[in-house]
Structures are given as C-alpha cells and as structure tokens.
Amino acid sequence: MKHPGKKIAILGGIVCIFLGAWYLYQSALTSSVYQGLPTVPCFDTTQPVRQAFQVHITITVDGQPYPLEPRIGYDYGKCMHTMYTTDASGVVYIRANDTSTYTLGQFFDVWHKTFSNTQIMTYKVESGHRVHILVNGKEVNSGRETPLRPNDVITISYQ
Asked: Between 109 and 21, where is the model more confident?
C-alpha cells in the first residue's frame, strides 16, 4: 500500500471542506444573517413586537378569485417576513419589530409577484383592462404605495 497517510490527509481535507460548506450554508439561512428583502425585514423573535395586526386582501382577475398562497412571507427556510399568510383565506398578518408603515407593494414583493400601475402578476394593463384597488370599499389610486393598516379590507381587481 503506497502512502496511506496521504489518502487519509486528502480524505480529511474533503471532510473539512464539506463540513465548512455545510456550516456556512446553515448560518446563511438564519435571520441574523439574511435580513429579508431590502424593504421588508425578517421578523426577529429576540426583539420586542412593536406592531401586530392583520388585513384582508382579496384579488379577482376577470371576475374570478385569485387566492393568496398559504405561507407567503416564509423565505429561505428560517426567515419569516414581517408580513405573511398562514393559509389561502386572504388574511395577511403584519408582525413587526418596528413601527414602519408597510404597503401593498411590499406585500407583493414578499409574495414574489409583480404589482405595479401597469401589471398585476402576469396580467398587464392593456386592451381596456385596468387594476382597481378598493380599501374598505373606497377606490384608491395609490397603487404600490397603498398603506396596510389594522383591519383594512383591500380588494384588488383586474378587469
């Protein structure tokens, strides 16, 4: 057998590289490293809750319901954003360590869906289509900047 020590050293090096990569991967998933989206941080369970409320968002596309997905806001394994869903009911929870005003546009960012004056998800505003936003029954033109406030009922329709 030629150079058994060399084989052991190579194998040991491979194991060290693997363990180091695994450790870096695991630490990159923690909320202390991953800070969330640029405007929507992860909720930090070690800090005090500064605001906690819910809003209800309903979306329709050409008259058909477009349900919110369950678990919106749960990114990268260990990050729960300050806005999230737990089911497809339309209830969006805002639980934050700060007192910032979060917006409808930020919710779509957390959902990883497009929302602008010219598009909602894959539906573009063209050929007579329009996006309507109602907050508590009143139409608003604030688009992405529509603030999310406690107990708001927000209806978005593409028609």
From this structure: 109
Nearest to 82 by CA among 39, 42, 129, 25: 42
Distance CA 140, CA 149 (A): 14
CB 59 within 8 A of CB 153: no
**pTM, 2 dp:** 0.75
High-pLDDT (> 90) share of the chain, %: 61
Which 8-state DSSP code applies to residue 80?
A: E
Q: How many CB atoms lie within 10 A of CB 24?
A: 11
**Which residue type does 95 have?**
R
Q: Would you say the C-alpha torsion 131, 137, 141, 144 has a positive or negative sign?
A: negative
Tokens of 83: 């806005």
Question: Would you call 8 helix, strand, or coil by DSSP?
Answer: helix
Q: Read off the DSSP letter of residue 88.
A: S
Is it true that domain 51-158 has CATH number 2.170.130.30?
A: yes
pLDDT in tens, 100-138: 999 999 999 999 999 988 899 999 988 789 999 999 999
C-alpha angle with apex 102: 100 to 103, nearest 5 degrees? 150
**DSSP designation for 47:** S
- Record the tokens describing residue 118, joined without a space: 């010219």
